[in-house]
Amino acid sequence: MEEITNCIHIQSNDKLKMSPEGDFFRVWVDFLKPIHDLTKREMDVLALYLKERYILSKTIKDEETLNEVLMSDKIRTKIRKECGIKYRHINVIMSTFRKKGVIRDNKFFLNLIPSFNKDGAGLMIYFDFNDVPKRIKLGYRAHQQKTGDR
User: Which pLDDT value is given to residue 89?
Assistant: First the structure.
């Protein structure tokens, strides 16, 4: 792939704490809304899970262990209390995440997780105009490779 030179820079304003520990993840999830199509409450929960994943990733380097800890009851309870929702409601939200492809194989879909470097976090959107036009759906490529659809 060629070097990417066209970028859109999204700058934070003074009202947002755009550090990863601050409001960044809520803004991130809001920005990705066309991809995941979650409700406001579901986006709040996802933002807290992504924030928790970021915090845990500072000490847990093994991806498998990180995903196990992130999906544990202890983290679910912490997020549920922080959002102020009932146990039943968080279970419904987690089920919705699975139905919408936000969670697969008991881990969050990697394309929704921001990748950080020393300068900030990035998201690359690549448009392949040589491909046959299709309806883009979350994780469509993975399904396509599995089934061999074209």
Answer: 95
